[in-house]
Amino acid sequence: MRQSHTPLANWVAQVFQQEFSVDPLLVASPGRVNLIGEHTDYNHGFVLPAAVDKAAYVALAPSNLPLGKWISLDMEASIEVNFEAIAPVSESWANYLLGIIDQVQKSGKSVKPFNCVFAGDVPIGSGMSSSAALESAVIFALNQMNDLGLSRWEMAQLAQRSENEFIGVKCGIMDMFASLHGKANQVIRLDCRDLSFEYFPLELGDYRIVLFDTGVKHSLADSAYNTRRQQCETGVHFFQQHFGPHLQSLRDVSVTMVQACRSLLPAEVYNRCLYVTEEIQRTLSACDELQKGDLAAFGLKMYATHEGLRHLYEVSCAELDSLVDATQNESQVLGARMMGGGFGGCTINIVHNDAVEDLFEKLRLAYLKEMNQHLTMYKVVTGEGARVLA
Ligand code: GLA
Questions:
Q1: C-alpha separations of 178 from 34, 58, 150 in Å
Q2: Ligand 1, residues 34, 35, 41, 348: which to mutate, most atoms within 8 A of Cβ?
Q3: How many A from CA of 162 to the centre of ligand 1?
Q4: Count helices and strands in the chain by DSSP H and E runs
Q5: Residue 189 C-alpha to ligand 1 middle, in angstroms?
Q6: Whole-prediction pTM value?
Q7: Residue pair 228/343 in contact by the 8 Å Cβ criterion
Q8: Cys staple from 385: which of 55, 142, 182, 242, with CB 3.0 to 4.6 Å?
Q9: Three-state DSSP class for 16?
Q10: Residue 360 and residue 347 in contact, taking contact as beta carbons nearer than 8 Å
């Protein structure tokens, strides 16, 4: 067995070897953070993600039968899959793989039956996109194994469609995009309208990015996400009727236009549109500030994003708010906000290197007292996008 990169990857490959007695194709695809640009991807705005050093690891090889055995080490579970009848199953973890196969088949290409073992260290429910990491790893591996000839972009789009149609979450492209395109030490400014992107170095000097994990994921997260998306679509429809069909998304609508229509829009739709149009502008200027090295200005934008997500977009929750509020008077924290879809998961923070441990201890105690919850901290290290390990 060839040696691969991390102990977890080695373990995945070893279990595969023991179970199926062949060397597998071993693939890694990472989770992501997003510095700014939240709930903008499906509104054709900008996002600023980076891949992290935590990933989904997938080992697979063709099976000689129309059946395949799949083993999830994280769930300590396995299933047998009939490749002649790909359909959703009750084991939700397996649906992430089935959805990818379904999309490949719908694109007119075929997937050879395969056996597979996988595991990951992207914390589940943390808002770091463990599911997109798994989906990206699977499509990356299948592309390789079946010579599908897909570009990274096509793989990201296919994985997004799988999440939208098979899993039923109407997510945008950001998570899969970041998992497939990430580079160590780089953030990516992605324009979700024309899908152009630009890498730039993440230079934080004496500061670093840390995540504080609330340890909760409220059950309404997925349904509320889909509702937000619908409310944005309602907004687009309204602006099209008033200003013309050339307005394709909230990207084509300005903050001033939204404000001018306040009395004509239902309050919720108004708030959602205001947040999104502001966030698209904010993300662009925040990117400029980051490139100029003005971390203080960038940090203030993060707080402003949180305010918008909390009061206008209404996707925050008490746990996230308490962690962001707790940083407000800390001079060593430049910015903090909830990250990802919302209703739990992590906050993302820019913190002075020397203050990280003390801050964590302070927040940990306060969070335990206030929310009766255990707080976890992740010090973010950027990493490479999807890749073959062996
Ligand atoms: C989730 C979705 C992404 C994006 C974020 C919010 O992570 O999967 O597509 O919409 O929420 O920015």
A1: 9, 18, 16
A2: 41
A3: 15
A4: 11, 13
A5: 15
A6: 0.96
A7: no
A8: 182
A9: helix
A10: no
